Amino acid sequence: MNWIRFCFLATSSSLLFLITVHIRLLINFCLMRLVLSIVLIVTVPVLYGQNKIQSKISDAIVKNEATSHLTFLAADEMRGRYTGSPELDIAANYLATQFRILGARPHSSAPDFFQVVELEKIIPPTAVSLRIDTTVFRLRDDIVVMSGGSISLEKELVFIGYGAKEDFEKADVNDKIVVTFAGTPESKSPRRLMHDEAPAKELLAQQYHAAALVEIMTLPGVPWQTIVNNFSKARMNIHEPGRQSLPHFFMRNTESETLRSLQQTKRARGRLDVVASQPQIVRSENVIGLIEGTDARLKNEWIAITAHYDHIGVMKNSSPDSIYNGARDNAIGTVGLLEAAKFFAANPPKRSLLLVAFTGEEMGMLGSAWYAAHPAIPLNQTVFDFNGDGGGYNDKTIATIIDFNRTTSDELLKKGCEAYGLILKGDPAPEQNLYERSDNMNFAAKGVPAVNFSPGVKAFDPDVLKYYHQPADEVGTLDMDYLEKFYRSFIYCIYLIANDPERPHWKSGDKFESAAKALYAN
């Protein structure tokens, strides 16, 4: 009996253990199924939504259509889309027509899609001479004119170092010819010198009632002949009616004993004579289109999608081809605007979109400077500028952003590129200050977070330089399979930013952060 009872009890315990184990396994399995179901409920719609929008972008953005736009804009018949030319007007009409066809709407201030930009064409003077004591410095050999018309002045010269504000405050410059070193002691970028530092110094000289301003060119690595070449051809500025330009000159840093003496003694007698033509007024256009967002709150925040559509025109050179077609710079970026208009008019995001094709970028970012001063959408409602501009590409596995670690958009932009097989890389040449050499700069300076997005450049090597501002930059040299991926990434990056619940902003410590705080204070 005891043996039988023992076997019975042992068997019962084993069965109970097995039943308990099976119940636990069943409970765990059900819990796992429940968790998996919850995960799928949460993630599948998100993934499906992402895959669906990526599929829509792939269906809408195709290389044949992009090639057609590029072929029109960069054709020989467009003669390099020089600012102020009839051909640039044709390009503007093409863009406005495409905006209308694709479904973007005009702004009330530009009912025909055109924002008129008033420019003035400055004709180089025919004769200039500057006499310091008994030494005469002449046009091109020693001096070039940045601004001002015909004059004849016999005034005292005063040298004030680099001409910072405190230098003007300490010296008596009233009705005198002020001589300074060019730029600041930290100056490195010729473009920044010409378009930012020199105009700012001219404004100071005007405020302190100087008769003229002469800057001695001391910027390292800039040959004098380069300065002469730049200032010996017609240039353009924004036309400001009623504004009197101060006579403003750049001077070669010679070994002249007279120039050294002026820097030591700070004063000299001088005479300045200029024979110049009157500037010509030039009418050009920014082309503006709008796409309203779908979210009741976020549609009041605007993403600016921008690109310049001008190039450098026709110039004599050593080759038989004198037309600088500008396929890479910047028909590629301009077509990005058209692709954005097409896709987002049919698939509007939560935030609203401002599409702007700028004139006059090659003349000194004039179209974007005009827009920043006369915005169609208030700048404090413009939360991001996605600018498309570039000089070419030499790595078809990447896209390039100028630059990382400026705004909080980095991760979204990386994601936008990875979706179509591209890796997003940053500034390939920080020493060239590329960020401040395109239209995004005129948004950033006002405080608007901004990046420049372009095809992939790993370095400024011969593969880029043989096309950059060269007649060879034609559509037939473009890899459209690569650009198809690039354009799809271009659109998806914008989609992600325009639908993100968090608006992009400058990263802490960025040089434009304080301007943003002032812009968005309210």
- Helix share, percent: 25-40%
CATH superfamily of the largest domain: Zn peptidases
Shape: elongated
Give the end-to-end Cα distance, rounded to a whole number of Å. 93 Å
CATH topology of the largest domain: Aminopeptidase
Describe the structure.
- The model is unreliable at 6-10 (pLDDT under 50).
- The strands form 2 sheets. A 9-stranded mixed sheet has the order 8-1-11-13-12-14-17-15-16, sandwiched between helices. An 8-stranded mixed sheet has the order 3-2-10-5-6-7-9-4.
- The longest helix is centred in the N-terminal third of the chain and has 59 residues, at 2-60.
- The chain has 522 residues and is an alpha/beta fold.
- The chain has 2 domains: 56-121 and 283-519, Zn peptidases (Aminopeptidase, 3-Layer(aba) Sandwich); 126-278, 3-Layer(bba) Sandwich (Glucose Oxidase, domain 1).
- α2 (63-73) packs across α13 (480-499) and α10 (410-418) crosses α13 (480-499).
- α10 links the parallel β15 and β16.
- 39% of the residues lie in helices and 21% in strands.
Quickly describe the structure:
With 522 residues, the chain is an alpha/beta fold.
Topology record:
Layout: H1 2-60, H2 63-73, H3 86-102, E1 114-122, E2 127-132, E3 135-138, E4 143-147, E5 151-159, H4 165-170, E6 177-181, H5 190-207, E7 212-217, H6 224-231, E8 235-238, E9 248-252, H7 257-265, E10 267-275, E11 280-291, E12 302-308, H8 327-346, E13 352-358, H9 366-373, E14 382-388, E15 398-402, H10 410-418, E16 423-425, H11 440-444, E17 450-455, H12 462-465, H13 480-499, H14 513-519
Parallel strand pairs: 5-6, 6-7, 7-9, 12-13, 12-14, 14-17, 15-16
Antiparallel strand pairs: 1-8, 1-11, 2-3, 2-10, 4-9, 5-10, 11-13, 15-17
Helix pairs in contact: 2-8, 2-13, 3-8, 8-13, 10-13
